[in-house]
Design a protein that fits this description.
The chain has a two-stranded antiparallel ribbon with strand order 1-2. It is mainly alpha-helical and about 230 residues long. The termini are far apart. Strand 1 and strand 2 form a beta hairpin. The protein contains nine helices and two strands; from the N terminus they run H-H-H-H-H-H-H-H-H-E-E.
């Protein structure tokens, strides 16, 4: 029953209201804040003992590498769906800019916290808090929602379902505590929100027609590159 409660918390805290997002000029904080607060509430020995008991009784022989693949699936879907011709909110260049900015944010946040806090994983290894897999998956799902959610809500729902499954599998694999995946999800969503909000401002200031900066994305079927030039 307790593992069901953990899954229910994850599902309820996913920002379902964003499935049909409309353009906004502010950062949506409710979902990442709710995830972060819940993570801190579960950051105690009692919660860890309860999860350990659930793992021993139900998942001790469970093992899968599917979570390693699923974490990237929302981002892969974002690229693939755009290539298929579905309507997106931003241009390819802007999607790349938002992706690069947001990825830098969540990678720095998760890896920095991992080494500063150095929480022990349920399996006894190091650097548990927060979950990088959950951050990657929920970042990708949020970006996917922002690009397609308004016109294709089912794509957004699928993206968050994949992200939630990734988080649950990290616990079932005994790689993370519930508090790790909740905080990772919050960081991923917050990074997508902040990047989407800030990128247009950076673009207008740095890359306008009078600017000495020039940003040139290179997009091909097999790779994404970007070149930043400064003229003087």
């Amino acid at each position: 029953m307790k593992i069901k409660a953990i899954i229910l918390v994850l599902c309820l805290l996913v920002p379902l209201k964003n499935l049909a997002q409309k353009p906004v000029k502010k950062i949506r904080w409710k979902a990442p804040v709710a995830l972060g607060v819940t993570s801190f509430l579960l950051y105690n020995q009692s919660a860890k003992d309860a999860q350990s008991t659930i793992y021993r009784n139900n998942f001790s022989s469970f093992s899968t590498k599917l979570d390693n693949i699923l974490q990237y699936t929302p981002t892969i879907l974002n690229v693939g769906l755009a290539a298929s011709g579905l309507k997106t909110k931003n241009t390819r260049a802007d999607r790349l800019g938002i992706f690069v900015l947001g990825t830098g944010m969540y990678v720095i946040a998760t890896q920095g916290l991992k080494y500063v806090i150095n929480e022990t994983r349920p399996n006894g290894t190091e650097h548990s808090f927060p979950s990088g897999h959950a951050a990657t998956a929920f970042f990708g799902a949020t970006i996917l929602t922002k690009e397609y959610g308004e016109n294709y809500p089912w794509i957004a729902a699928g993206g968050y379902a994949i992200a939630g499954t990734t988080a649950v599998l990290r616990m079932a694999n005994n790689q993370h505590w519930a508090t790790d995946v909740l905080m990772g999800a919050g960081i991923g969503i917050a990074s997508a929100e902040i990047a989407t909000f800030l990128y247009p401002k950076f673009k207008s200031k740095l890359f306008d027609s009078k600017s000495a900066w020039n940003f040139e994305p290179q997009i091909a079927p097999n790779y994404y590159l970007a070149r930043l030039n400064y003229s003087f």
